[in-house]
Amino acid sequence: MKLRLKFSKEEPLKFISHLDLQRLFTRAFRRAGIKLGLKGGFNPQPKISFALALPLGCTSSGEYLEAEIVDELNPQEVKDRLSFQLPEGISIKEVTEASQEDSSLTSRVSSCLYRVRFQTEESLNVNKLKETVKKLLQRKELEITRQKKKKTKKIDIIPLIEHLEVMSVNSFQGEVEMHLKTGAGGSIKPQEIMSIIEKEAPLTITNKKIHRKKLFLEGGK
What does the alpha-carbon distance between residue 114 and residue 83 come to, in Å, rounded to a whole number? Predict the structure, then answer.
């Protein structure tokens, strides 16, 4: 039986790594008495996979994982039993039965919706910030440079931005929402968008909190 879990990762656990998150859920299944299916031969691993790794320090209210369990259990029972074993900061929102025919979760993530709250050294002007974002989106091309090991690569990020909007401004604080593509066609990180805004405004961002509100899966699932 294959299940899909939607869960949140909040402030108390925002600094645990993706690997630690995998271990946390694997232990929770075991303690809840829910036996996971296994894959592999010599060193079998539990059949549990996550949609997309959440960057360290970020929170989320819309993460997904899929797990294959040995016993036929009601999704609500799985939710109740797992919730009892999970620490503060992880909350299961929904458990549904998933199709065995679906490809991997990671391959089905098409885009992500983020909210970024930030503080600046300068007092913010809402009109100026909105105009900066508007001009960025009007560009035909906007390249960033990424360096991996000894290789440098330039990427045009304009096709990767579904939506970018200033949501609020209050003195030295602001909030931006961004809907960003991910997948085989390329991806852009919210940190990279904020670095561009900081440079173009220009601003000096002293602190930011990144929250992933939602993952969009192909097929609308």
Answer: 25
Sort strands 205-217 and 59-68 into parallel, antiparallel or unpaired.
Answer: parallel
Give the residue from 91, 78, 92, 95 showing the smallest Cα distance to 32. 78
Instruction: Identify the pLDDT of residue 146.
Output: 86
Q: What is the mean pLDDT of each run of 10 residues along the chain (221 residues)?
A: 96 95 96 93 88 94 96 94 96 93 87 97 94 95 86 91 96 97 89 95 95 87 50
- Chain-centroid distance, C-alpha 23: 18
Distance, in Å, from the CA atom of 52 to the CA atom of 182, rounded to the nearest integer, reads 10
CATH number of the domain that residue 16 is part of: 3.30.70.580
Question: Are both 82 and 130 inside the same structural domain?
Answer: no
CB-neighbour burial class of residue 85 (10 A; exposed 0-12, middle 13-18, buried 19+): middle
Is the separation of the CB atoms in 185 and 162 below 8 Å?
no
At 68-90, the pLDDT tens digits run 999 989 999 999 999 999 999 99
| Same domain, yes or no: 88 and 161 | no
Which range marks the domain in which residue 22 is found? 2-102
pLDDT at 102: 81
CA torsion sign for 92, 93, 96, 100 is: negative
Domain boundary (50, 84, 102) is at: 102
Buried/exposed code over 177-199 (b: 16+ C-beta within 10 A; e: otherwise): bbbbbbeeeebbbbeebbebbbe
For tokens 């299916």, the residue is 37
User: Does residue 119 sit in the same domain as residue 207?
Assistant: yes
